[in-house]
Amino acid sequence: MWKFRDVISILDYTRDELEHLFSVTDVILERSLDVGKPLDGKIVATAFIEPSTRTRLSFETAAKRLGAEVINLEPHLSSMAKGESLTDTLRMLDDYANLIVIRSPYEGSAKHAADVCEHPVINGGDGTQHHPTQAMIDLYTIRKLKGRIDGLEVGVLGDLKYGRAAASFIYGLTKFNVKRIWLISPEPLSPRPELMDRLKRMNVDFVKTENLEEAVEDLDILYVTRIQKERFPDPAEYEKLRGSYVITKKLLSRASEDLKVLHPLPRVDELSNDVDDTPYQAYFIQAKLGVPVRMALIGLVLGVF
Ligand code: CP
Q: Phi, psi (5° rounding) for residue 123?
């Protein structure tokens, strides 16, 4: 099921496997994250060659809470700055650690790391389509706040072309029986063909629109994402699209009072601070749940749960 398996894409997991992860997370939360030190003597390496706050630090926190020690590759301080390849760097980490978490801007880096390393590799986000552990957190957050994922009407808004959190989340939703997915983006930031193909193949009821107002009254969940400035080949194109959507408290007054707003964070200008103190806000809860979900994941992959 999970033991010693590389975590590369949310698509590699069945609904049953995800539900097992969620059950283990429930137990960790019931115990206020205090589950002893089952990873005493183990070492987890993080190899982040792209910036991160939540993913790196929540993996580090999760590993330490389980009793593991953590070593962090600092690319600018490592011999990568002298020209050493990522492949050779990964070989070293594989010699030093029991588990490697990688983040990279390059498509396929996590799979490459898994091919190079004997120890399990977890994808902390690579390229534009895969951020599987974020999707696990997103799905768990919905299940926790709504009691279910099935039957919900879910809007995913923003950069659905370059945003790997959005893509992974949508892929994750296809493992459940949601009522409908609203794909809300400017046309140039529409989901990639492979994602659209998956939705069609899985017979998911979806609506693709540029207009949030069309959807907002029907939604149970609104998943907001940042327009991914760093992934645009042409900065002028980003400038044209930035600010396409700004979610405010006023805009949400038309939504169901039970609507929950998620965002993988970081946010820039697409989600107003005035939503923070409303009952819609679920993004800080989502970020906080990153630790127990990643504790469950690391424990399952290293075979202690
Ligand atoms: N959600 C997420 O991946 O955040 P970071 O980039 O800060 O890790």
A: -80, 110
Task: Kindly report the backbone phi and psi dihedral angles of residue 242, in degrees, each rounded to the nearest multiple of 5, phi listed first.
Answer: -60, 145
Mutation probe of ligand 1 site: the residue of 46, 48, 49, 53 with most atoms within 8 A of C-beta:
53
Interatomic CA distance for residues 299 and 202, integer angstroms: 31
Tens digits of per-residue pLDDT, 74-132?
Answer: 999 999 999 999 999 999 999 999 999 999 999 999 999 999 999 999 999 999 999 99
Average pLDDT along the chain: 96
pLDDT in tens, 254-270: 999 999 999 999 999 99
227 CA from centroid of ligand 1 (Å): 14
**Which domains occur in the chain, in start order?**
10-130+289-301 (3.40.50.1370), 132-287 (3.40.50.1370)
- Catalytic residue, chosen from 65, 119, 130, 131, is 131
Minimum-distance ligand 1 atom for the alpha carbon of 50: 6
Going by their DSSP bridges, the two strands 121-126 and 153-157 should be labelled as unpaired
Pocket residues: Cβ below 6 A from ligand 1: 52-55, 125, 134, 165, 264-266
